[in-house]
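Illustration 12: Zn(2)-C6 fungal-type domain-containing protein.
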Amino acid sequence: MMPRESNLGRLRSYGACLNCRRKKTRCPAERPSCSNCVRLNQSCRYTSARRASREGQSTGWRLWKRRPAQVTRQDQTREELGEIPETTYSKNRNPSSGEPWYERVSPGSASRSLGFGNEDSNPHPSSTAVSKGLELYFHYCHRQPIWCFDQEDLGDKGILSDELVYSILALTARFSRELGQSPRYGNTARTLIMLRVANGTVDLEIIESLCLLAYSSFIDGDLHLGRFHLGLAFQLCRAAMMDMESGYPPESPLTERKKRLFWSLQSLEQAYGQQNGFLSLPAEILRPFYAPLGGDRGSQKELEPRPPQLPRDDIGCSTPSDIGIWSLAVHFGWVWSRARTYVSDCAQNRLKEPWRHDSMYSMILSDLTEVENKLPQCHRYDSVKFYERKAEELRTNRGYWMPWLKLQFTYHCILTVLNHPFLYIVASQSNPNLSIPNAFWRRSSELVLLHATWLVRMIDMVSEKKMRLIDPFFGHAAAIAATVHVYYCCAADSRLKQKSKIDFDKCRSFLKSFVPFSAACKALDQTLDKMTRIAYGSENVNDDWMPSKIHLSIPLMWNLLKVNCTPDLPEMPGGLLHPTLVPAIPRDDAGESSCTLEVIVAMSPDVTVNTTDGGQAVHMQPNMTNISSAPSTPGSVVLAEKLVAPADSLMMNTPWLWTGQFPDMENIDYQESDSAMGNIDGFSTWWDFGNL
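Figure caption equivalent — predicted structure in token form:
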């Protein structure tokens, strides 16, 4: 840490011209033009001593400088979002007394020198706004899912770069009353970043800024701009050898921070990156772990370059050898990226029989099992007992519980997508030679209903604990689960119908909670509403809607499963591409409603599910199948019915739903399970299966 300079030294630093201050190079301070600017044939300009002194005193982006008005504003912001104020971060709140390790310019002077307008027309953010932006960042975005820096990383410097400041504000403005300022902050940050790239002065904070901007764009649903930020950040990582393990010297103080940044970029790539195209990297290359391989191939694998190790993360770990929860979420996120590719292949009619050992379906299940085996006992559902935790405890430790929730949602979402009946119904229609065995239909039907129900259970627990989730992935997961539950709304069993309708309404309500701050989730919600109207066949549907058949829009179902819903262009200011380069996406509402799949009931089980206690109820004997007839409302948080599956229903008699293309399915001679299983005392309830 450099010692504090005298006042004379500080004033002398502000005697540099604007170009040298922007490039952070030593300025000869020759007037009227310094030799650096003359050599580069640039216009040399200086600020007055009085103005420079005022800027040096008022803009340093000191961290954690709290004021009473600021605290009130933050509480109002959280109240607007329905969030109970959480415990503030107190560790290293005060900046270091030393000067920053390299000279910074004030955002006000930088924006004016770059032609962003005068101070009145485009005022730079105040220190209070920056402090509030940092508070909101650590409250809503830190480790959720990106983990670029910790409070200690910022506190050691005491001052942030302009690029990082504007990027943080672009990401967090949506959570305050300054929502409309987010595009301006983002444009300013992007301009400053591109100048640093052009001048060859890229440092770690520049790549961190790109990571924040990419996440902000993905929340806004601007995939073009988000993937541009993400791709540029990856290219800079490659230039700095941050994509290889050998580029991380253990003695460097920035090693862990660089690892967190690299894997944060990978986390965004897993959830929002491009899944196809010649420029897309195969998911296998980005595997965050290495499976043991036998033979010569295993020896060759050991010699190949490896990506950096995951960062140190011991929050919630019981032993030093346990993998941190954030790192585990990255592992599951990698499998989720493979599942996204699988859906994309199915949409392009490239489905290989999923029951084959060399199919992508089997390989994804193998990878998921391998990752699940890495999950320490200390992070498992039955050990952490999320449903028993106090709401205040969960909010205090968001750094642990947000990655834990991401991991749980990802796990159940992977298995929901892989076994979604829509994939295989469409595949059977488009490929007459594809004969799907009954055993596969039965098993996949069990899994998709099981894990779609688990997603609703996770939504119930989050709602009960009043936890505000921000990552659009959670909205995506709810939309995917909703497509399963609307599918089962036409089951023959009235209880399964009612349960599916309630779960579907919960998914819709949860998705709508993301709409105020995420244009991506707003577009997803609009697509789900449109699909629902087509399925219902009416604009107005009452609570007694219990159909015997539904119509699923094939284009809308693919859009929901592939999360291919983007906002309309007028809702996306400050985009990347000129209109002549924007890919043409057909929007044929008539085609969406006419190209439908009719789903009818062929066979349905006697399904009863306990969704009120997180799966921790005492195991009940199979013959205890009494249910409550208490009414449920679509907006209710807790499912009114407490149901237990009989042994001869779900696990032995799958809920069979088919399309009109299978007219003979109703006459299939399906054998009921042996009743001997029902005589086993202490048989596990259906809900005990499938938790992580």
